[in-house]
Design brief:
- It is a single chain.
- This protein has 73 residues and is an all-alpha fold.
- The chain has one domain.
- Helices cover 77% and strands 0% of the residues.
- It has four helices and no strands.
- α2 runs antiparallel to α4.
- The chain is elongated and about 40 Å long.
- The two termini are 17 Å apart.
Length: 73
C-alpha cells in the first residue's frame, strides 16, 4: 500500500468527487447505477463496469483516509 502514500489526498478527493458526480446532467451515473442495483436491474456488463468505474475512486479515497488515520493514530 506504499503507492497510496505517494498520491496526495487532495488529488484523490478531487477525482473521487468528480467521478462520483459525473456526468452532472441529467443524473450522475453513480446514482443511476446504485438505483438500478437496488431495483435488481443492474445486469448488463457495461452497467456493472460503469458502477465499478465511478465507485473505484471513492474506495481509493476511503483506503487513503484509513491509512492516514492508522499512521497518525
Amino acid at each position: 500500500m506504499a503507492w497510496l502514500d505517494c498520491i496526495p489526498l487532495w488529488l484523490i478527493a478531487v477525482v473521487a468527487v468528480w467521478l462520483a458526480l459525473a456526468p452532472f446532467v441529467p443524473e450522475p451515473h453513480l446514482t443511476e447505477k446504485l438505483r438500478m442495483l437496488a431495483a435488481g436491474t443492474l445486469r448488463r456488463p457495461l452497467d456493472i463496469f460503469d458502477l465499478l468505474f465511478h465507485l473505484a475512486p471513492l474506495v481509493v479515497l476511503a483506503l487513503k483516509l484509513v491509512r492516514l488515520y492508522q499512521w497518525r493514530g
